[in-house]
Hints:
This protein is α+β, with helices and mostly antiparallel strands. Helices cover 17% and strands 31% of the residues. The protein contains five helices and 17 strands.
Amino acid sequence: MAGANLPAKKYKKTSPTTSRLSFELSGNAVQYIDIAAALSAINRKFYRQGVYYYVNSVEVYNNEAGVVDLFTVPDTWVTKNAWNRGFRLFQKMNAMVDSPISGVTRPKYHDFKVFMSQRHMEQGTSIQPSLHNIDLAHAPKGCDDWVYSEFVSADDDGDAVQQADNFHVHLLGAHYGTSDNWESVGLIKSYAESRTTVEPDSPEDNNISITDPLLNVFDFSSEEQMNDVITNLLDDNDAPPYDQDNYIGESASDMQHVARIGTEVGINRIGRASGFCAPFGLICIDPSGYDSNYRIVLNLAQGTYHGVYAERA
């Protein structure tokens, strides 16, 4: 009868989720993955981009001799603070026209979505995840609406044309466009330009004289031992242990390399790499030596955020 011969326990997974994301790519072109968009498309749920996603492992399937390099945004306090600053400004901009001022409410799937770099912005989209059929057939799964955030500036560009300056934002690299017509603004670059920095030599002690009579009252050494010690203290380690004029992420070449996966013809057609953290779910895919189609699979860490593990920025 119905219901007989069943397991004793019910399926208790509270949020059934496809956390294995498969992407079909072709050739040597650089492309980008947006994990939040891919999860949303596959699982029919809304995943926010502005969190830290975690990849347990990566697989590459191809019958060619070549490699695939994977890059993310550097996981630093600068990245986190720059994103949060952009998010706050985006929220403040939208609050200016919130109800009851305009009667317009925030869209149900409203989110702060950013590009990884200018190159990502110029492509405009990210790779769609795929599901599969037999005989290597696959079906990409897209989003009905996944629009990257746009700022609308009230800054008068002086062109005497009553049209606001609209631009996107990206994390890595310099601003793109001109001061009267920005196309995309670098969040980390903008964050660096908004901050004060440390003094090159702090504290300032260059006016100390090692020939001062009182300073040498107890210098019994004919080899000027105390003077040498003082000189070392004056000259060494009074500047920051980093480039004070550079914030990591101001350059588009500041990506974090997280994996290199190789494949060969005939054997070793599946390459694997261990996991990593992907800030805001953005990954750059850079293949070399590939001319045909190949597949990348991300196995995401499972957790409590709609079935995957993620952390807020």
